[in-house]
User: Fold this.
Amino acid sequence: MSSKRIIIFIAALLLLISSILLISDDLFSPYVSFEYAKSKPGKNVQVIGKRAQDAPVEHGDDGFRFTLTEDNGDELKAYHKGVKPLNFEHADQVVLIGKYSLEKGIFEADKVLVKCPSKYEKEVN
Assistant:
């Protein structure tokens, strides 16, 4: 292989890597704050929070609505078109993957994942 081809290959590789990093500004940060999700409507993000115990879970024909809270007290109203996870009410934390809709004023979750660490922790004697 000639040195000219090697240089072109390395330049193309560097260009590809830099463009991936520029396009995906959240690549190394899996969770974003509720405030960030609201400020970037239509952008696919992942948020984490606790289910607000004082807000009811509302079931509809094709999904359910609920509210999450962050540690700082911020709230995020969410909607998931699909089935509610079985252990949703007992979850310590809820992870949502989806987009915030500015028009509807709600986070539209494509996926709802629940975290129940107490269920899987080893019992200490």
Q: What stands out?
A: The longest helix spans residues 3-23. DSSP finds three helices and six strands in the chain. The chain has two domains: 1-28, 31-120. The two ends are 64 Å apart (CA to CA).
